[in-house]
Amino acid sequence: MFKIDPIGFVESSFKESAPPEEMRKHQSTIVIKPELADGLYKIERNQYLQIIFYFDQSEGYNLKGPRYHGKERGVFASRSPRRPNPIGVTTVELIKVEGNKLTVDGLDALDGTPVIDIKPYADVMDKPAVD
Amino acid sequence: MFKIDPIGFVESSFKESAPPEEMRKHQSTIVIKPELADGLYKIERNQYLQIIFYFDQSEGYNLKGPRYHGKERGVFASRSPRRPNPIGVTTVELIKVEGNKLTVDGLDALDGTPVIDIKPYADVMDKPAVD
After folding, report:
1. What pLDDT digit, counting tens, does each position of B5-24 carry?
2. What residue ranges do the domains of chain A occupy?
3. Vertex B34 angle, CA B13 and B48, to 5°
4. CATH 2.40.30.10 given to domain B8-122
5. Which one of A18, B48, B76, B110 is CB 3.0 to 4.6 Å from A39, fit for a cystine?
6. Which residues, 6 or more positions from B18, have their beta carbon under 8 angstroms from its beta carbon?
7. pTM of the full predicted structure?
8. Which residue in A has a C-alpha nearest to residue B21's C-alpha?
9. Does the distance separating the beta carbons of A7 and B42 come in below 8 Å?
Protein backbone atom coordinates (compact mmCIF):
# COMPACT_ATOMS: atom_id res chain seq x y z
CA MET A 1 0.00 0.00 0.00
CA PHE A 2 1.41 3.37 -1.04
CA LYS A 3 0.34 6.85 -0.10
CA ILE A 4 0.00 9.53 -2.72
CA ASP A 5 -0.19 13.21 -1.90
CA PRO A 6 -1.40 15.59 -4.63
CA ILE A 7 1.22 17.97 -6.05
CA GLY A 8 -1.52 20.38 -7.15
CA PHE A 9 -5.03 20.73 -8.53
CA VAL A 10 -6.83 21.37 -11.82
CA GLU A 11 -8.83 24.51 -12.52
CA SER A 12 -11.25 23.86 -15.34
CA SER A 13 -14.55 25.16 -16.65
CA PHE A 14 -15.80 21.55 -16.53
CA LYS A 15 -17.52 21.01 -13.18
CA GLU A 16 -19.26 17.81 -14.25
CA SER A 17 -18.33 14.81 -16.33
CA ALA A 18 -18.31 15.30 -20.11
CA PRO A 19 -16.96 13.18 -22.98
CA PRO A 20 -13.13 13.28 -22.92
CA GLU A 21 -13.05 14.37 -26.60
CA GLU A 22 -15.00 17.46 -25.66
CA MET A 23 -13.00 18.23 -22.54
CA ARG A 24 -9.78 17.89 -24.50
CA LYS A 25 -10.79 20.78 -26.77
CA HIS A 26 -10.43 23.23 -23.86
CA GLN A 27 -7.61 24.82 -21.96
CA SER A 28 -7.30 24.39 -18.23
CA THR A 29 -4.92 25.46 -15.49
CA ILE A 30 -2.86 23.29 -13.18
CA VAL A 31 -1.96 25.01 -9.92
CA ILE A 32 1.06 23.40 -8.27
CA LYS A 33 1.48 23.65 -4.51
CA PRO A 34 3.76 26.66 -3.87
CA GLU A 35 6.26 24.54 -1.92
CA LEU A 36 6.75 22.32 -5.00
CA ALA A 37 6.95 25.11 -7.58
CA ASP A 38 10.75 24.76 -7.96
CA GLY A 39 9.99 21.39 -9.54
CA LEU A 40 8.71 23.31 -12.60
CA TYR A 41 12.15 24.76 -13.39
CA LYS A 42 12.62 24.87 -17.18
CA ILE A 43 9.41 22.94 -17.80
CA GLU A 44 8.58 25.56 -20.49
CA ARG A 45 11.17 23.84 -22.69
CA ASN A 46 8.67 21.03 -23.24
CA GLN A 47 5.85 21.41 -25.70
CA TYR A 48 4.02 18.35 -24.39
CA LEU A 49 3.52 17.06 -20.88
CA GLN A 50 2.07 13.94 -19.42
CA ILE A 51 -0.37 14.75 -16.62
CA ILE A 52 -1.01 12.02 -14.07
CA PHE A 53 -4.09 12.71 -12.01
CA TYR A 54 -6.47 11.08 -9.56
CA PHE A 55 -10.13 10.52 -10.48
CA ASP A 56 -11.36 11.67 -7.07
CA GLN A 57 -15.00 11.78 -8.25
CA SER A 58 -14.88 8.16 -9.39
CA GLU A 59 -16.46 5.55 -7.16
CA GLY A 60 -15.84 1.82 -7.27
CA TYR A 61 -15.20 -0.25 -10.38
CA ASN A 62 -16.19 -3.40 -12.24
CA LEU A 63 -13.47 -5.74 -13.43
CA LYS A 64 -15.45 -6.47 -16.58
CA GLY A 65 -18.26 -4.60 -18.21
CA PRO A 66 -19.59 -2.71 -21.17
CA ARG A 67 -17.36 0.23 -22.06
CA TYR A 68 -17.72 3.57 -23.73
CA HIS A 69 -18.84 2.13 -27.07
CA GLY A 70 -20.96 -0.62 -25.51
CA LYS A 71 -18.49 -3.47 -25.99
CA GLU A 72 -17.50 -5.65 -23.08
CA ARG A 73 -13.91 -5.16 -21.91
CA GLY A 74 -11.84 -5.73 -18.81
CA VAL A 75 -11.06 -2.58 -16.83
CA PHE A 76 -7.37 -2.81 -17.84
CA ALA A 77 -8.43 -2.89 -21.50
CA SER A 78 -10.38 0.34 -20.95
CA ARG A 79 -9.72 3.99 -20.13
CA SER A 80 -12.71 4.15 -17.77
CA PRO A 81 -12.16 6.37 -14.72
CA ARG A 82 -13.69 3.62 -12.57
CA ARG A 83 -10.56 1.53 -11.87
CA PRO A 84 -8.96 -0.32 -8.93
CA ASN A 85 -6.54 2.64 -8.66
CA PRO A 86 -8.43 5.57 -10.22
CA ILE A 87 -5.46 7.18 -11.94
CA GLY A 88 -5.69 9.08 -15.22
CA VAL A 89 -2.87 9.81 -17.66
CA THR A 90 -3.25 12.33 -20.48
CA THR A 91 -0.75 14.02 -22.79
CA VAL A 92 -1.40 17.76 -23.05
CA GLU A 93 0.16 20.72 -24.79
CA LEU A 94 1.85 23.23 -22.52
CA ILE A 95 0.66 26.74 -23.42
CA LYS A 96 2.04 28.95 -20.66
CA VAL A 97 3.89 28.85 -17.33
CA GLU A 98 3.37 31.60 -14.76
CA GLY A 99 4.95 30.94 -11.39
CA ASN A 100 3.22 27.82 -10.03
CA LYS A 101 0.50 27.82 -12.69
CA LEU A 102 0.53 25.87 -15.94
CA THR A 103 -1.95 26.59 -18.70
CA VAL A 104 -2.45 23.42 -20.73
CA ASP A 105 -4.52 22.41 -23.72
CA GLY A 106 -6.21 19.01 -23.84
CA LEU A 107 -6.64 17.90 -20.25
CA ASP A 108 -9.74 15.74 -19.66
CA ALA A 109 -9.95 16.35 -15.91
CA LEU A 110 -12.73 18.07 -13.97
CA ASP A 111 -12.33 21.25 -11.96
CA GLY A 112 -10.67 20.42 -8.62
CA THR A 113 -9.05 17.17 -9.78
CA PRO A 114 -5.92 16.34 -7.78
CA VAL A 115 -2.77 16.13 -9.91
CA ILE A 116 -0.25 13.57 -8.67
CA ASP A 117 2.61 13.91 -11.16
CA ILE A 118 3.76 15.77 -14.27
CA LYS A 119 6.38 14.49 -16.69
CA PRO A 120 7.75 15.79 -19.96
CA TYR A 121 6.38 13.74 -22.84
CA ALA A 122 9.24 11.68 -24.26
CA ASP A 123 9.04 9.69 -27.48
CA VAL A 124 11.49 7.15 -26.05
CA MET A 125 9.05 6.22 -23.26
CA ASP A 126 5.64 7.17 -24.57
CA LYS A 127 5.46 6.60 -28.28
CA PRO A 128 4.42 3.17 -29.50
CA ALA A 129 7.16 1.61 -31.57
CA VAL A 130 6.51 1.88 -35.27
CA ASP A 131 7.88 -1.02 -37.32
CA MET B 1 -3.87 11.70 0.62
CA PHE B 2 -4.79 8.66 -1.47
CA LYS B 3 -3.96 5.02 -0.96
CA ILE B 4 -2.74 2.94 -3.84
CA ASP B 5 -2.71 -0.84 -3.76
CA PRO B 6 -0.64 -2.66 -6.42
CA ILE B 7 -2.63 -4.61 -9.01
CA GLY B 8 0.38 -6.84 -9.70
CA PHE B 9 4.16 -7.03 -9.99
CA VAL B 10 6.88 -7.04 -12.64
CA GLU B 11 9.10 -10.06 -13.32
CA SER B 12 12.25 -8.91 -15.08
CA SER B 13 15.84 -10.03 -15.58
CA PHE B 14 16.88 -6.55 -14.35
CA LYS B 15 17.47 -6.76 -10.60
CA GLU B 16 19.34 -3.46 -10.41
CA SER B 17 19.01 -0.06 -12.03
CA ALA B 18 20.15 0.21 -15.66
CA PRO B 19 19.67 2.90 -18.31
CA PRO B 20 16.01 2.91 -19.45
CA GLU B 21 17.08 2.60 -23.11
CA GLU B 22 18.77 -0.70 -22.27
CA MET B 23 15.93 -2.00 -20.12
CA ARG B 24 13.46 -1.17 -22.85
CA LYS B 25 15.18 -3.59 -25.24
CA HIS B 26 14.03 -6.54 -23.12
CA GLN B 27 10.81 -8.40 -22.54
CA SER B 28 9.39 -8.72 -19.07
CA THR B 29 6.31 -10.23 -17.45
CA ILE B 30 3.57 -8.53 -15.49
CA VAL B 31 1.78 -10.84 -13.08
CA ILE B 32 -1.64 -9.49 -12.13
CA LYS B 33 -3.16 -10.48 -8.80
CA PRO B 34 -5.44 -13.48 -9.50
CA GLU B 35 -8.48 -11.72 -8.00
CA LEU B 36 -8.08 -8.91 -10.59
CA ALA B 37 -7.40 -11.14 -13.61
CA ASP B 38 -10.91 -10.59 -15.04
CA GLY B 39 -9.82 -6.99 -15.62
CA LEU B 40 -7.62 -8.29 -18.45
CA TYR B 41 -10.61 -9.46 -20.52
CA LYS B 42 -9.89 -8.78 -24.23
CA ILE B 43 -6.72 -6.85 -23.44
CA GLU B 44 -5.04 -8.90 -26.21
CA ARG B 45 -6.87 -6.70 -28.72
CA ASN B 46 -4.42 -3.91 -27.90
CA GLN B 47 -0.97 -3.88 -29.42
CA TYR B 48 0.28 -1.20 -27.02
CA LEU B 49 -0.36 -0.68 -23.34
CA GLN B 50 0.50 2.05 -20.91
CA ILE B 51 1.98 0.62 -17.73
CA ILE B 52 1.73 2.75 -14.59
CA PHE B 53 4.07 1.55 -11.88
CA TYR B 54 5.55 2.59 -8.56
CA PHE B 55 9.28 3.19 -8.21
CA ASP B 56 9.46 1.36 -4.89
CA GLN B 57 13.28 1.37 -4.90
CA SER B 58 13.40 5.15 -5.27
CA GLU B 59 14.16 7.20 -2.17
CA GLY B 60 13.49 10.90 -1.73
CA TYR B 61 13.74 13.57 -4.40
CA ASN B 62 15.15 17.00 -5.20
CA LEU B 63 12.84 19.61 -6.66
CA LYS B 64 15.65 20.90 -8.87
CA GLY B 65 18.90 19.31 -9.88
CA PRO B 66 21.10 17.99 -12.62
CA ARG B 67 19.35 15.35 -14.69
CA TYR B 68 20.32 12.41 -16.79
CA HIS B 69 22.33 14.41 -19.29
CA GLY B 70 23.83 16.77 -16.68
CA LYS B 71 21.52 19.72 -17.28
CA GLU B 72 19.62 21.31 -14.44
CA ARG B 73 15.87 20.73 -14.54
CA GLY B 74 12.93 20.73 -12.16
CA VAL B 75 11.69 17.29 -11.19
CA PHE B 76 8.47 17.81 -13.21
CA ALA B 77 10.59 18.60 -16.28
CA SER B 78 12.39 15.28 -15.83
CA ARG B 79 11.63 11.56 -15.99
CA SER B 80 13.75 10.83 -12.92
CA PRO B 81 12.38 8.04 -10.70
CA ARG B 82 13.09 10.27 -7.67
CA ARG B 83 9.84 12.27 -7.54
CA PRO B 84 7.35 13.54 -4.93
CA ASN B 85 5.06 10.67 -6.00
CA PRO B 86 7.42 8.06 -7.47
CA ILE B 87 5.17 6.92 -10.30
CA GLY B 88 6.45 5.69 -13.66
CA VAL B 89 4.52 5.57 -16.94
CA THR B 90 5.82 3.66 -19.96
CA THR B 91 4.18 2.57 -23.20
CA VAL B 92 5.00 -1.07 -24.01
CA GLU B 93 4.15 -3.57 -26.69
CA LEU B 94 1.92 -6.44 -25.61
CA ILE B 95 3.45 -9.71 -26.78
CA LYS B 96 1.37 -12.38 -25.08
CA VAL B 97 -1.40 -12.91 -22.53
CA GLU B 98 -1.59 -16.15 -20.52
CA GLY B 99 -4.14 -16.12 -17.71
CA ASN B 100 -3.03 -13.40 -15.31
CA LYS B 101 0.38 -12.95 -16.96
CA LEU B 102 1.26 -10.39 -19.61
CA THR B 103 4.50 -10.61 -21.56
CA VAL B 104 5.49 -7.12 -22.68
CA ASP B 105 8.34 -5.58 -24.63
CA GLY B 106 9.88 -2.29 -23.55
CA LEU B 107 9.15 -1.93 -19.84
CA ASP B 108 11.87 -0.03 -17.92
CA ALA B 109 10.93 -1.41 -14.49
CA LEU B 110 13.05 -3.55 -12.18
CA ASP B 111 12.16 -7.05 -11.06
CA GLY B 112 9.55 -6.87 -8.30
CA THR B 113 8.26 -3.41 -9.21
CA PRO B 114 4.63 -2.90 -8.13
CA VAL B 115 2.27 -2.18 -11.02
CA ILE B 116 -0.58 0.17 -10.11
CA ASP B 117 -2.53 0.42 -13.37
CA ILE B 118 -2.64 -0.73 -16.98
CA LYS B 119 -4.43 1.10 -19.79
CA PRO B 120 -4.71 0.53 -23.51
CA TYR B 121 -2.59 3.06 -25.36
CA ALA B 122 -4.96 5.44 -27.15
CA ASP B 123 -3.85 8.04 -29.67
CA VAL B 124 -6.70 10.30 -28.57
CA MET B 125 -5.25 10.58 -25.06
CA ASP B 126 -1.57 9.81 -25.41
CA LYS B 127 -0.30 11.12 -28.71
CA PRO B 128 0.96 14.69 -28.82
CA ALA B 129 -1.09 16.73 -31.26
CA VAL B 130 0.64 17.20 -34.57
CA ASP B 131 -0.19 20.48 -36.28
Report:
1. 999 999 999 998 888 888 88
2. 8-122
3. 55
4. no
5. B76
6. none
7. 0.94
8. A124
9. no
